[in-house]
Amino acid sequence: MPTRAVPRAKAPGTARPALTEAEILRVALEIIEERGIDGLTMRHLSSRLGVALGATYHHVQNKHALLVLVARSRFARIDLPIDGDDGDWAAQLRSVLLDVTDVFTGQAELAAYVLGHFDDMAPTELIVAMHAVLARAGFAEEAIDDALATLFFYVGGTLVGGFTTMGGGDAQRRELRARFERGLDVILTGIRASLAPIA
Predict the structure, then answer these.
(1) Per CATH, domain 6-71 is 3.40.228.10
(2) Long-range CB contacts (< 8 A, 24+ apart) of 98-101?
(3) pLDDT at position 119, please?
(4) CA angle (37 as vertex; 29, 95 as ends), nearest 5
(5) Can you tell me the mean pLDDT for 159-188?
(6) Average pLDDT of the chain to the nearest whole number
(7) Separation between Cα atoms, residue 113 and residue 109, nearest integer Å
(8) What number of CA atoms fall less than 13 Å from residue 58's CA on the CB side?
(9) Where in the chain is the domain with CATH 1.10.357?
(10) Where in the chain is the domain with CATH 1.10.10.60?
(11) How many CB atoms lie within 10 A of CB 2?
């Protein structure tokens, strides 16, 4: 998506700052955190940015396109496994999925939107990297697909349900997080035991 600068409305005698995609994403996330996805409208976003509605549309064509950018900006924060890394595949996948959980914790509505529009919003680089980890470990193609589906269902359900952030105090939230990690370890152990690598 191009990040062509769009002039913002200015008071007489002041400089005309440029509107950027990064600023749009920052303010969109603020609105989502304050008002949820339903509270994010192109008109409200433009008002918060201090620009005309048309200026925002120069960068994003509609709300869905904006949410795609927001989701991709979250996925971009995740450290992907290094291509060719021959370390333990389960440890690599665990690290990636904990990163996914961290960047979407507290964003249950956004996580639900991503899952509901997965064809448009699938994190291709993330899926390819995780697939490569299992392929390097020698798993068959069907086994890889089953493993990734299971892991995404578990992590996605956790995020949509807000399980990692529900609870009263810090101690309870830490225990819920620890329980989530133990569940992830159970799934990875099951994948290790039941998905036989190619001979």
Answers:
(1) no
(2) 98/181, 98/184, 100/75, 100/126, 100/155, 100/159, 101/155, 101/158, 101/159, 101/164, 101/180
(3) 84
(4) 60
(5) 82
(6) 85
(7) 6
(8) 16
(9) 79-194
(10) 6-71
(11) 6
Query: What residue type is 195 in one-letter code?
Result: L
Q: What is the pLDDT of residues 73-95, one digit of tens each?
A: 999 999 998 776 778 999 999 99
Q: Is the pLDDT assigned to residue 164 strictly greater than 90?
A: no
Joined together, the tokens standing for residue 48 give 């918060």
The residue to which tokens 């971009």 are assigned: 76
- 7, amino acid identity: P
Tokens of residue 54, six digits:
């048309």
At 6, is the secondary structure helix, strand, or coil? strand
| Highest CATH level, class, for 79-194 | mainly alpha
Q: Is the pLDDT of residue 149 over 90?
A: yes
Q: Provide the token pair at 180.
A: 């989530």
Alpha helices, DSSP H, located in the chain: 21-35, 42-49, 53-57, 63-75, 89-104, 108-116, 118-121, 124-136, 141-160, 170-194
